[in-house]
Write a structure and sequence with these properties.
The protein is 31% helix and 31% strand. By secondary structure, it is an alpha+beta fold. The longest helix is centred in the middle third of the chain and has 16 residues. The radius of gyration is 16 Å and the shape is elongated.
Length: 132
């Protein structure tokens, strides 16, 4: 995405991903985080979540993928995030990562970003900033 074409209100191309228990297990192997809340459905059923949930950082990676798609190397070299985890993602959820440009000034592009599930529940929300 060319920053010259960005204006306040521009929407970044979304990233849509399905969360499966296999996705969660693969992330656990890659990250080394095998917390039973994520990888053991029987254990997770006994928790306040009543079932397994995805690693927050796995869901956050979808936002980073969206920002990398929109800004390429500029995101990787100069991107900054300020986010808040709001709700867990679960196996079977379809996650949509979106972003909207809120400012283009001072050599930076600022965006409101979020991940929502298929019911519209916000899982992660925040702001991103990247040099233009």
């Amino acid at each position: 995405m060319q920053t010259e074409s960005l204006a306040v209100g521009s929407e970044l191309p979304p990233v849509v991903k399905e969360i499966t228990q296999k996705t969660i297990a693969r992330y656990a192997d890659a990250s080394g985080d095998h917390n039973p809340l994520h990888v053991d459905p029987d254990f997770a059923a006994t928790t306040q979540f009543e079932g397994p949930i995805a690693h927050g950082m796995l869901v956050l990676a979808y936002l980073s993928e969206m920002l990398t798609g929109a800004f390429g190397d500029r995101w990787l070299e100069s991107g900054h995030l300020k986010i808040r985890f709001r709700a867990p993602a679960r196996p079977g959820d379809t996650i949509t990562a979106t972003g909207t440009v809120t400012a283009v000034d001072g050599g930076f592009v600022s965006c409101d970003i979020e991940c929502k599930n298929q019911t519209g529940e916000t899982l992660i929300s925040g702001q991103a900033q990247v040099s233009s």
